[in-house]
Specification:
This protein is α/β, with parallel strands linked by helices. The chain has helices at residues 25-31, 50-66, 90-96, 121-126, 146-150, 165-168, 173-179, 183-196, 221-226, 228-233, and strands at residues 15-16, 22-23, 36-42, 70-73, 108-110, 134-135, 141-142, 153-157, 201-205, 238-241, 247-252, 255-260, 275-279, 283-290, 293-300, 305-312. The radius of gyration is 19 Å and the shape is globular.
C-alpha cells in the first residue's frame, strides 16, 4: 500500500528513544508515527469468477504487507440471490474457500447489498455464530474495532437497500425483504450516532453509492436525498461504497466518496462531476487512518496500485 502520511526521515546518526536507549533512525521514526487503523475494502465480490480469485490473492498480499487490522465487506456478498441459510454451500465456495490468505483471517465487517436481499438476509447475521471472522451484528451498526479506537475514528455501516424505491416496489423476495425494514428508524439511528461521535474521523459505509459514474447504476437518488444531508450535518469526511463494479474516487457534496465495487468483475465507468479517479477494473481498496490523514490506495486484481490519495481530517472540497 502506498502510504501518503508525512513521515520524518532521519538521514544519519542515531536518535535517543523514550527509555534513553540508542535506537536506529528507522526505529526512532516509527516511534513518532501516529497510531492508526489499516483495513481492506471489498465490494460486490461473491461470485466464483477468475477475477474474484485474483482479487482475493492480491488482497491477501496487500493486507499482509500493510498489517491490515480488518476487512470491510461492503455488500453483494453472494450472487445472484444471496444465501438461503447458514448452511448454504456458497459460504464455502465464495468466502471460506477463496479468502484463505493468513492476512485475511481477521475480522470481516460485512453489510448487506441488494443481491443479498434476494435471499435470506438474516442468515448473514446468523453466520457470525459459525465463523471466527464474519461480523454482522445488525443490518446497520457501528463497527467496534480496537484499531478504530486507536485511530480516533468512528465507522458506521448502514443498510442502503431498503431506501431504494424500485426494490421496495418489487413483488418478489427483495421487495418483501426491503419493505420489512424501517428506514426512518435507521436514519434516526445514524443521525443520533453521528451526533454523539466525538472522534476525529467520522466515516460511513453503505453498499449503494451517493454519486457514481458507473455504467451499471450511477447516482443513487434516495441516498442523495435521505442520507447525504445527515452526513454533511455531522461533518463525515468519507463515504465508502460499492454497487457499481469499478473503482472510483469522487469529491463532491462536501465529502470524499471511495468506490470499491470490483470484487469479482469490472464494468465501464465514466467521469462525472467531482471525479478524481475512475477505472473499469476488478480490484479492491486499502485504507489507512492515522493522525490527521486518511490515505487510500485503489488496486487492481493483480495488486497493482492504480490510484492513491489522501483526505485531510477536515477535507477541503
Amino acid at each position: 500500500m502506498t502510504i501518503l502520511l508525512d513521515r520524518r526521515t532521519l538521514l544519519s546518526g542515531f536518535a535517543v528513544g523514550a527509555a534513553g536507549l540508542t535506537v536506529p533512525p528507522a526505529a526512532a521514526a516509527r516511534e513518532k508515527q501516529p497510531k492508526g487503523a489499516t483495513f481492506a475494502v471489498l465490494g460486490d465480490w461473491g461470485r466464483d469468477t477468475p477475477e474474484q480469485h485474483h482479487v482475493a490473492a492480491a488482497m491477501g498480499r496487500a493486507a499482509a504487507a500493510a498489517r491490515s487490522d480488518f476487512v470491510l465487506a461492503i455488500g453483494d456478498n453472494f450472487y445472484s440471490d444471496g444465501v438461503a441459510s447458514v448452511d448454504d454451500p456458497l459460504w464455502q465456495s465464495v468466502f471460506e474457500g477463496v479468502y484463505t490468505h493468513p492476512a485475511l483471517q481477521v475480522p470481516w465487517y460485512a453489510l448487506l447489498g441488494n443481491h443479498d436481499y434476494r435471499g435470506n438476509p438474516q442468515a448473514q447475521l446468523d453466520y457470525a455464530t459459525r465463523s471466527k471472522r464474519w461480523r454482522m451484528p445488525a443490518r446497520y451498526y457501528q463497527v467496534a474495532d480496537a484499531a478504530l479506537v486507536r485511530a480516533d475514528a468512528d465507522l458506521f455501516a448502514i443498510d442502503t437497500s431498503p431506501f431504494v424505491g424500485r426494490y421496495r416496489d418489487n413483488d418478489g423476495l427483495i421487495g418483501s425483504n426491503t419493505r420489512s425494514q424501517d428506514t426512518k428508524a435507521q436514519l434516526a439511528w445514524l443521525d443520533h450516532a453521528l451526533s454523539q461521535s466525538r472522534a476525529k474521523w467520522k466515516l460511513v459505509t453503505g453498499h449503494h453509492p451517493i454519486r457514481s459514474g458507473g455504467s451499471g447504476h450511477g447516482d443513487q437518488p434516495e441516498i442523495i436525498a435521505q442520507v447525504l444531508p445527515i452526513l454533511n450535518r455531522h461533518g463525515v469526511q468519507a463515504y465508502i461504497a460499492g454497487h457499481d463494479h469499478d473503482l472510483q474516487h469522487i469529491r463532491r457534496d462536501g465529502i470524499d466518496m471511495i468506490q470499491c465495487g470490483g470484487g469479482m468483475e469490472a464494468r465501464p465507468v465514466s467521469p462525472v462531476e467531482g471525479t478524481r479517479f475512475c477505472r473499469a477494473a476488478a480490484g479492491f481498496g486499502m485504507v489507512q487512518v492515522a493522525g490527521d490523514l486518511l490515505s487510500f490506495d485503489l488496486r487492481d486484481e493483480a495488486g497493482k496500485s492504480l490510484y492513491s490519495a489522501a483526505v485531510p481530517v477536515r477535507a477541503v472540497v
